[in-house]
From TrEMBL:
Organism, as annotated: Arthrobacter flavus
Protein name, UniProt field: LacI family DNA-binding transcriptional regulator
GO molecular function: DNA binding
Annotated TM spans: none
Keywords assigned by UniProt, alphabetized: DNA-binding, Transcription, Transcription regulation
Listed Pfam families: LacI, Peripla_BP_3
Length: 347
């Protein structure tokens, strides 16, 4: 069978080539019944529009850039892997490709923006790891470069829902609040929190959910909040501090911290019948050892980021515009620790 072309498809349907093009690139311009008929024919024929022709027509490269963030360990790095995989699939569905690049610092990332825009002619960028005073978003806004971020803008004075740029984030505070309420319901009254140093944005958000649940439950949090840099050993040491302060359970800002805390808790207490350590990110390692953890809807976040970026780049001001700012709600995966978690293998 001959390969379907724009011309052959238009002739077989008795419509113009412009109609086929509009169905692919501007479907709102085509009557619904015609659009459905053309879409069905495209699917049946296997027709694929020419990427080169599209680039000449739209003056776009159909390419987006994203920085590969440094991985602290192989545990939390799996979240970035999931996000990148989902982002790649979503971009491909919209006719885009991703250009990956590395940068050691935010300054380096901005320099990479300049180089890539000059050399690779990228259409826009996807940002991750947003934080207070993020110079990357400021640079892109100043230079009017399209972008969307996985992570809201962090500011003590500005409402993120008033931000000039699109973003998608996960409500970390809602996740840790749910985790803390579970522990309260199980009878714990001394629930600690192991998080990152203040000012990290996402870490502060996760800490706030823990505090909210304790205050709503009439429980004090004095001396039960430990700030550390991410990692399994740091989580284990922080758990020792919390146990010494009287904590019987702990909520953590990441699975790496929680895995360290779990090792310490299992060395001090027999395996409980209910979770007493809860992590964040629901990584494969957490599932393997039976660690309860807050699960982020990573795939939903990736799809929406590409959707809103593709809409922005299309210049289509018609109805159907995706939400510019989207805060997704996580879920809690409740599990019971594996017996081996007390043998010190995580320390």
């Amino acid at each position: 069978m001959a390969k379907a072309t724009l011309v052959s498809l238009a002739e077989s349907l008795g419509v113009s080539r412009q109609t086929i093009s509009n169905v692919i690139n501007a479907p709102h311009r085509v009557k619904p019944e015609t659009r459905l008929r053309v879409e069905h024919a495209i699917a049946e024929s296997g027709y694929r529009p020419s990427a080169a022709a599209r680039q000449l027509r739209t003056r776009r490269s159909m390419n987006l850039g994203i920085r590969m963030m440094p991985v602290v360990d192989g545990i939390n790095g799996s979240i970035l892997d999931r996000f990148l995989h989902a982002l790649t699939e979503a971009a491909q569905d919209e006719g885009y490709r991703l250009t990956l690049f590395s940068a050691a610092t935010d300054d380096d990332e901005v320099r990479q923006y300049e180089d890539l825009l000059n050399v690779a002619d990228l259409d826009g960028f996807v940002l991750t790891g947003t934080h207070h005073g993020d110079q990357r978003t400021a640079w892109l806004l100043d230079h009017e470069i399209p972008f969307a971020s996985f992570g809201r803008p962090w500011s003590d004075t500005e409402d993120p829902f008033s931000s000039r740029h699109p973003w998608v984030d996960v409500d970390g505070g809602a996740g840790t609040e749910q985790a803390t309420r579970l522990l309260l319901d199980q009878g714990h009254t001394a629930i600690g929190f192991i998080g990152w140093p203040a000012g990290s944005g996402a870490g502060d958000d996760r800490r706030s959910g823990w505090l909210r649940a304790l205050r709503d439950g009439g429980v004090l949090a004095d001396q039960l909040d430990v700030e550390v840099h991410d990692g399994v050993p740091a989580g284990a040491r922080a758990a020792e501090q919390l146990i010494a302060a009287g904590a019987t359970a702990v909520v953590c800002a990441s699975d790496s911290l929680a895995l360290g805390a779990l090792s310490t808790f299992r060395s001090r207490y027999p395996a409980p019948t209910t979770p007493d350590v809860i992590g964040f990110d629901d990584t494969p390692v957490a599932a393997a050892v039976g660690l309860s953890s807050v699960a982020q809807p990573i795939e939903d976040a990736a799809r929406h980021i590409i959707r809103v970026l593709a809409h922005t780049l299309s210049g289509d001001a018609a109805s159907g515009r995706p939400d510019k700012h989207l805060l997704l709600t996580p879920t809690l995966a409740q599990r019971f620790p594996h017996p081996l978690a007390g043998d010190g293998w995580l320390a």
